[in-house]
Amino acid sequence: MAGFRDLKVWQMAKSLSVAIYRETRKSEWNLDRGLQDQIRRASVSVPSNIAEGDARKSQKDSIRFFYISLGSLAELSTQLEIASEIECIDGDSHQILQDRIRQLESSLGALIKKRKESLD
Prior knowledge:
This protein is 79% helix and 0% strand. It is mostly helical. The protein has one domain (4-25, 35-119): 23S rRNA-intervening sequence (de novo design (two linked rop proteins), Up-down Bundle).
């Protein structure tokens, strides 16, 4: 059985989290440290829950943690929308990150579907 590091969704999520940390280091984020912290926490939650889910012994537990990751992606997307509106993040960076979130949501949804099918 491959480890979580071999999962494409985990790799995508970790890469997204690193991109979020790089983006939130910019000076515009000095305006709102609370939102910066929330965005960072949500971004780290995604690969963390994928890793924990993959390490679980049952598919049912794995799926539950993958759904938690989807929830964190929705939280992250919402927070980025707010950050864009209060001009902590520029439009291009915002769009690139939102596109990456949508790709990850799709890939994670496919993984959940695959794991659900293995329960049958």
